[in-house]
Amino acid sequence: MSAVDVERVYFSYGEDEALIDVSFIAEEGEFVAVMGPNGSGKSTLMKLLLGLLKPMKGKISVFGVNPSEEKEKAQHSIGYMPQRDSISKKIPIEVKDVVLMGLTAKKRRLDFLSREDIETAKKALESVGLLHLWNKKFSELSGGQQQRVMFARALAVKPKLLILDEPFNGVDIPSRNKILEVINSRENLTTIMVVHNVNPILHFIDKVLLLNKKAVAFGSPKEVLTTENLMETYGASVQVVECKEGYCHPLLGDTHG
Fold it and tell me: How many whole angstroms separate alpha carbon 151 and alpha carbon 106?
């Protein structure tokens, strides 16, 4: 059984087509990068995997579960890190509260948290090197530290699948490297990451999905990251540099996409 199986999926917002006949399979333990320009359907795809949206056509399976029909069951195996989270700086929420959010969402009530839940949250925070900030106000953290805390929140639910929606926007290199280090250390963890600059993660990923409403290409980075595929995806010429170690580096720059 595959970790994620997306089969001929269509989705529209009214008359605006977001995804058209998209198919791909992520096997258990694979790290898949999703790339495409703004408006290409990347975040829509993530919401479909989470069961927050329902395909208009096609099928989605997450470890054998249809997320739109059994959302709660599917989400029990998923850790989700959205784009730059909108936790208000005016709310005096502490780091520990943020990390525990994923667990409380699954248990519905804060008083259902056990001692084991607290320890799990602490271990998740420790894994990103920030346990010493457990009682710190979230608003007082740097951008990179906040992203690591949000990543720890996704880890705290002990996921089989991690869905990360552009986790590196505005993040310093040490925080980015720590997140990648943790992903790489988890056996059998399937990761799907939306990213606009694939170069920092090329040595970690197994597959790339190039998306522009349609799935332009899916496969290994060397197979997918070609000048022709990138032209079809982004509508502009993208230079690809192949280094000696066989990794293809597209020169997309650091602009948001």
Answer: 17
**Separation of alpha carbons 144 and 128, rounded Å:** 11
CB count within 10 Å of CB 147 equals: 26
Q: What is the pTM of this model?
A: 0.89
The domain total for the chain is 2
Strand ranges in 151-205 using DSSP code E only, listed in sequence order: 161-165, 190-194
Q: What is the CA radius of gyration of the chain?
A: 18
Rounded to the nearest angstrom, the gap between the alpha carbon of residue 53 and the centroid of all alpha carbons in its chain is 16
Integer CA distances (angstroms), 119 to 71, 99, 103, in order: 26, 11, 12
Nearest to 29 by CA among 188, 175, 165: 188
Same-domain status, 63 and 166: yes
Residue 257 reports pLDDT greater than 70: no
Its domain, for residue 206, covers 1-75+162-171+195-257
Residues 21 and 65 in one domain: yes
- Model confidence pLDDT, tens digit, residues 141-195: 988 999 999 999 999 999 999 999 999 987 889 999 999 999 999 989 999 999 9
Asked if the structure places residue 179 within a domain, the reply is: no
